[in-house]
Amino acid sequence: MNDKSKEVIAKEKAAIDAMRNAKANMATALERIETLERGIGALILSANIAKKRLLDGAYDYKGDRSWRTELQRATNKAQELL
User: 2-53 and 67-81 are packed helices; what angle lies between their axes, rounded to 10 degrees?
Assistant: First the structure.
C-alpha cells in the first residue's frame, strides 16, 4: 500500500510540474503577444506620422501608386492584426 501511494504521489507531482510548465509557457506566449501588439501599434503610429509628412504628389518610381495610399493600406493591414 505504501508503494501505491508513492506512485500516486509521483504522478501528482508530475502533473503539478506539467501544469507549472504550461503556465510558464502561457506567460511567455502572452508576453510575446503583448510585445508584438506594441510593435504593431508603434508601426501604425509611425506610418500615420509619415503619411502626414508626405507630399500629396509623392508616388513610387513607376508613378502609378501614391505613397500615402500604400501607407494607408499597410496601416489598415496592421490594424486588422490588432
Answer: 160
The pTM for the full model equals 0.65
Expressed as residue numbers, the domain containing 32 is 2-81
| Cross-strand bridge partners of residue 59 | 66
Which neighbouring-strand residues pair with 66? 59
Q: d(Cα 2, Cα 11) in Å, to the nearest integer?
A: 14
Domain count, the chain: 1
Euclidean distance between CA atoms 66 and 5, whole angstroms: 73
Taken in order 51, 54, 55, 59, is the CA torsion positive or negative? negative
Q: What confidence tens digit (pLDDT) does each residue in 7-27 have? A: 899 999 999 999 999 999 999
